[in-house]
Amino acid sequence: SRTDMDPKARVIAIGLPTLSLDPFVQFYELPYKNAHFVFERASGVYEIPLKTVGKVIRGEKHFETKGDGKTAKGTYSIDIQVCNPDC
Q: Within 13 Å and on the Cβ side, how many CA atoms surround 18?
């Protein structure tokens, strides 16, 4: 792929200060990590076994790893399905 997704969540924060009865509302976008970030952490190398059925080449594989960082932990999981010429 030549482009990557740009995932964001729209956040609406409503607050009521303790010394005032005037609530405030804030709107902002919270960015998520893109697909490249997830792929980079799910596996270092993507070896996918291929099978030929007639004129179609297909392959699929599941990749998973756990990240245990100092500030955050995560489980990265990717399912890849490839085919040529049609899926």
A: 0
Cα three-residue angle 52-83-46, rounded to 5 degrees: 100
List, in sequence order, the alpha helices (H) in 8-85.
35-42
Distance in angstroms between the alpha carbons of the first and the last residue of the chain:
16
pTM above 0.70, yes or no: no
Q: Is residue 17 within 8 Å of residue 44, measured between CB atoms?
A: no
CA 16, CA 12: separation in Å to the nearest integer? 14
pLDDT single digits (tens) 15-70:
998 888 889 999 999 988 887 777 777 666 778 899 998 889 999 988 888 877 77
